[in-house]
Please model this.
Amino acid sequence: MDEQAELQEFQARIARGEKIEPGDWMPEEYRKQLIRMISQHAHSEIVGMLPEGAWITRAPTLRRKIVLLAKVQDEGGHGQYLYHAAETLGATREEMIDALLAGKAKYSSVFNYPSLTWADMGMIGWLVDGAAIMNQTMLAHCSYGPYSRAMVRICTEETFHKKQGMEQVIKYARGTPQQKAMVQDALNRWWAPSLMMFGPHDSDSPNSAQLIAWGVKTKTNDELRQEFINKMVPDLQLLGLKIPDPNLHYDETSGNWITSEIDWDEFWRVVKGDGPCNRERLAARRQAHENGAWVREALNAYAEKYEQ
Amino acid sequence: MPNDSLAQKILTLADDSFILGHRNSEWAGHAPILEEDIAFANLALDELGHAHLWYELYQELTGVEPDRVVFFRDANEWRNTQFVELPKGDWAFSMTRQYLFDLYENVLLEKLVNSTNERVRGIATKIRAEEIYHLRHTSNWVKRLGLGTDESHARMQNALNELWASALQLFVPLENETELIDANIFPDLKTLRDEWQDKTVSHLSASGLIVPRVLEPRAISRAQHTEHLAELLNDMSSVARLEKFGVEW
Model:
């Protein structure tokens, strides 16, 4: 088959709802876009271990400590699973990690915000994992088999994380004055970053149309963001929490909650590496990598000597 | 029934597992390979889970809730060994410590599954299934790092030199421990130490490592701690102590 015929067959398979599998023919751009998306997703899981990992030692009950450590461990597991999914497209783990450490690869900007109090663990679980689930539920229908299956598995665990986060936010919103203040402060800081998680406006998202045509995405950034807002606003208000947006209002005609315009200057600043914690996060990853160099060398040396 | 000495003994088991799990959890997100971010977190989770089981038994014996025991005690009230409270150090240090501890737990649990106390027996049986995997995992690491490169070997030998005398504290009996031994609730730690020593020396030598010629434990009393424990506890209870005990988190 010539390239044109292959492309037509590829589009037809996607139209029929078939999954594209690792050995199958695919356009080079499809492969590239998927490697970009999946590796960014994997990096997000790995960097995402840091803001929450920092609170494992301070979790206030034995149960919370175990749950938080298990959550951070799940994130490592998701990262590993996703790196494998990207490997099926020809990327290697080393290349991907090198790109992350060199600051060339992106990861979810939300992890470039600091986690300042324990209530952030609840708010991150509910808002950030909640937003991630909306995106991932969509990607579970993605046309690339390994990514789609990874999403199904990951969503199941993320749903637990979100429930655990929600449970905490509810408890603190109904808790002592100090807990209430803490959880309101967490909402004040995490609301905007969680809306930014859905990415730029559709009009500024150059890859969206193609990704939708290829069946990688089925909804646009703005559609997903609006769904998230409509879901979260009533739930948060019900708890007596105040959403930090003076212009927030309900639009009867569309049935949507309308928020202020997102601070896109901040959004692009953080994406480009100048957020509150970008340097710190990458430095932590680099340090772990450098500190582990002798360990990886030892494993290789051992394998060469004894496992040939 | 020697309930008070049993409670004291259970507390030492709980505290050792808890503090070790806490220390190992500090690796989450910072391990040398992603696979170990996952595996080592798993070991930490297991240790914390085991501690929880022992704290529950402690509660049955004394009425004191696990979260009160963990978050509302000061350093001098903790009954863990100094061995587990030392900072995590490098990967060689944490791995060697976990290995030495896993072997101790294996020889101990092998006996505890036959304890005349039904609750001790039940918990030991549950924990032992997991500890067998721990030991397999850490034994493999000890071998790979001990025989890997000159650097990994040197780091492992350093870790062993630093840890050995502290590890021996695991085998120091409590004051009233003979009551428990006589009632066949707990095994005699002297016998366990011999078994542990034979097994560790054999595996460590096969991994190219030399066991220090030290026979005396670095510390005897479990009421005495290094400065590291107070630091650990300050950080650990900083959120819990924002409110009085009993407020839900």
About this structure: The two ends of chain B are 36 Å apart (CA to CA). Chain B touches chain A through 49 residues (CB under 8 Å).
